Amino acid sequence: MSHEVIRSTALNEEHGVLVSAEGVGSAARGEPRVLVTMGSDSDLPLMMKAVDTLRFEFGIPCLVQINSVHRDLRSMVRHIENLPPSVQVVIACAGGAAHLPGNIADLRADLPVIGVPRDLGALKGVDALLSMVQMPEGAPVAVMAIGDAGAVNAAIHAAKELAIADPAIKERLQAYAEKRKAKVQRQNQGLEQKLQGFSD
Ligand code: RP5
Fold first, then answer.
1. Could you say which DSSP state residue 57 is in?
2. Ligand 1: does its nearest atom lie under 6 Å from the Cβ of 95?
3. 17-165: what fold?
């Protein structure tokens, strides 16, 4: 079945919004491999770092959906139980008492769940981090760092999971690693000038 057919016949509003390197919603292409979900649309600026890393660095289309376990638990359960079969990894972000990733890990014994704690409120994300990481035995959540680095790393971790069975993603992961190495090289090339600036 072509990607086009899967998108137009199988995806509906209940599945969330498809996002790919080509665009958003009707402009997006391909079948979603990852669900990027979060407790509120106020988490979106943070989670766009995960979405953009997935689509632009690794060419991975994803579904984006808001799911709040504190405001509408029943819809979350329905959405997560009815994910399109092409979705193989879930990235879930929340701030505060962050129960979303753990609840998804319990609902979906078959899918890896990656948690991104949002840096929010009086405890600045430490509450979300501990809520996600202290899962009881049997329902693991792979918890990333609080904030921006965590969102980007969630996308890389999801890509690594998909790369186990997808050589094209494996290649893009290698290219991403090369870009990071090139940054160190560039920094060393400009180092003498920077050091001179410090000793002026
Ligand atoms: C969490 O509460 C959400 O994931 C968000 O991080 C936080 C605040 O939500 P809003 O009050 O901004 O909607 O459930």
1. I
2. yes
3. Rossmann fold (3.40.50)
